Amino acid sequence: MSCWMPGCPALGVCRGLAALPIACLERAKDLKTRLGILLHKPELGHRIGTSSKLQLGSRQRDSSRDVLEWRESFDQLLKSKSGVTAFHTFLKTEFSEENLDFWLACEDFKKTRSKTKLASKANRIFEEFVQNEAPREVNIDHETREITRKNLSGATSACFNEAQAKTRTLMEKDSYPRFLKSTSYQDMTKQATSRGISKRSHT
User: PANTHER family given for it (predicted)?
Assistant: First the structure.
């Protein structure tokens, strides 16, 4: 672009570029070159797309196997992140998701190493789930509630063990069988089974 003419609109641009440090100009050229190389490599995008499809296929196979394993035992369901999510969604329809939330809070609580955090977390969990008329009170007997209250005075990672076990048993005996019979879970198993059949027919 020539800018020898007086009043040339490019004159300001040229002067601006001339004022820039040489290092900046060289970096700009380098970036332009790199972009040019990437734009002329369509096979790169193809490889990325293929890789994503393979990972997606692998995830689908894993999730199909997971879904079918949830009916083997309540433990299998709780071991699966997607299983816990599906079960939590089901419990919401029954307005009893606080039981699972309490169980999960206890699992997280047991991983706490700091004694100061242990005490504050214990009080928070007790106030939210265990005490009488708690915002999200779980269904446990009076005796277990009192034992848990006493445990707070010297909070250890085991202070909710009894209450957690009672809540877990309640879910396993009551909510879990209904979850397995629910329309949502039946639909998931059908999809998982059909994916498994489709996979076998292509091998």
Answer: REGULATOR OF G PROTEIN SIGNALING, REGULATOR OF G-PROTEIN SIGNALING 16
